[in-house]
Every structure is written in structure tokens, then in C-alpha cells.
Amino acid sequence: MTLCRPLRGMSRAVTDPGGGRSKDMKHRTVLAALLLAACSVDGNVASANPAAKPSPSGKQEVAILAGGCFWGMEHVMRNAPGVLSIEVGYAGGRSSKVSYEEVSSGDTGHAESVRIVFDPAQISYADLLTHWYFRGHDPTQLDHQNNDVGTQYRSEIFTTTPEQKTIAEFVRARVETTHEWKAHLVTRIEPATTWVRAEDYHQDYLIKHPHGYNDHFLRAFDF
Fold this sequence. Notes:
This protein has 223 residues and is of the alpha+beta class. It is built from six helices and ten strands, in the order E-H-E-E-H-E-H-E-H-E-E-E-H-E-E-H.
């Protein structure tokens, strides 16, 4: 485990009059979270999280999903039935050792993501994507999500098995044909490679800070 440098900053984020966020708001909100953060790396993207609560069925599966700021994605996805554990981190990049500041540059290839351990006997991978992931963020926004701009905020599904890839492609096509989203879906699908667990102050952020920045919610429509 590597210790990150101490961070300093503001006490809270400030929303602009239009309901958006200034360009560096998230960074300032992050700086307010702590004075010292610990960084850790989990290189095995498909292994279950040791901290996951026991699965009633004895089965576990891992899903890795990106869709904008990982604070909001975590907050939405954790409410899905069958979720045993959830954490935020960085997926899809070239390096297995990166920090929030490095990913925020947009140059590392990583996307802010959530890593979910779930019980497939309680919720299928297809239902997790259909009723939660594709409703919990806007999959029509290319390389950004609302006010968060950059490839690190892209919409992407990182599959952990060939079966997940087949399911993800089917679900994406099905969601597209419903036309509930009025524009073309830009969600990418690729095999999961590197997973870097984000710094501790990012984990459960909106539980620790209920009024913190969040632009994710489940849409009223379903597929």
C-alpha cells in the first residue's frame, strides 16, 4: 500500500446558479475530504472482494462499470438487489498504479468506475445492466457525463468473462431499440484488464457526505 500526499482544500463544493459545477469543483470537493489518503491496487479484476458480505446462494460475480463520476454511480448501483459489495476505482487504463490526480488529467486511459460483487441468483448480469446501469447514467454522452468532461468520465462496460461480453452487447442493443434514450448510445464494451481501487476518501463518498456532488439517479423509464 502506498501513502498519497496530504491534501488540502475547501470545505464543500459550490453549485453554480445554473445547477452545474465549475470546472474544478470535484477536485476541490475531493481536497476537502481528508488530509491523508491511502491508495491500494487490486490487480485481479474478476476475483470477489474479500470484504463482500456472504452470498445467500454461495455464488458471486463481478461487474465493472463506468458512467461518469464514480461517486454518483456507486450511490445508484449499490441499491440494486443482490449487491454484496461495491467500491470505486479506475479501470481500462494502461497502468496498475495511478492516483486520482493522474486519472483526472485524462491522459492515463482509465475511467472512473465501480466494481460490484453481486449474487447472480438474486440479480442477473443482464438485469443489473438493463434496469440499473443504463437507467442510472446517460449512455448517450460521449466522453463526458453532464458537467464532468473527459475520457475518464466515459460510458463503458468492462466485461470479466466472454459470457458477460455477449450479454452486455445484447443489452446495449436492446436498450437502443427502445428509444427511451433519444440519441445513439455511445457505451463502449471491452474486456476488463487493470483495476485500481480508488483512494479511501472516494469510497462510500455520498454516504459520508450526503449533500456532496451527485448527478446520477435512476430514470423514471425502464426497458
